[in-house]
Specification:
134 residues; mainly alpha; two-stranded antiparallel sheet; 3% strand
Length: 134
């Protein structure tokens, strides 16, 4: 597969993740916790960075995008871990709100918002690693 098609596919992943996060907050009225905000900060620029790289066919973009996706994977994995190993004392927001509260779950609780973010960041990390190797 040509690099610009890989980058276009990765852009689509970032767009879907960004649109999903906006739908959860603006469409459904869910308030993002602090870890959700960190994940957004790392995901939103990837839409523009990967989109421009796909249009201009710049596979070297992995140098910019991979650190964002790796950090996002780490934050999303930690957030998902907090949900699994939940403790009422675990907080991550300035106002003391809990990150472990599952505000919205899909597939019978299997897919939560942090897990959806983890899937997106993992796809981006793997895809950018493939771009970097080629």
């Amino acid at each position: 597969m040509p690099p610009n098609r890989r980058l276009a596919a990765l852009t689509a992943v970032a767009v879907v993740a960004t649109a999903g996060s906006l739908w959860f907050s603006l469409g459904l009225g869910l308030v993002p916790c602090l870890l959700c905000w960190y994940q957004r900060i790392l995901m939103y620029p990837l839409v523009v960075v990967l989109g421009v790289a796909a249009v201009e066919n710049r596979p070297g973009v992995w140098r910019t995008a991979l650190p964002l996706s790796v950090l996002g994977t780490g934050v999303a994995a930690y957030h998902s871990y907090l949900q699994v190993a939940s403790s009422s004392a675990t907080t991550c927001t300035i106002d003391g709100g809990s990150c472990v509260t599952v505000q919205y779950a899909l597939a019978g609780g299997l897919l939560t918002i942090p897990r959806l973010s983890l899937v997106a960041f993992t796809l981006l990390t793997v895809g950018l690693s493939v771009v970097a190797r080629r």
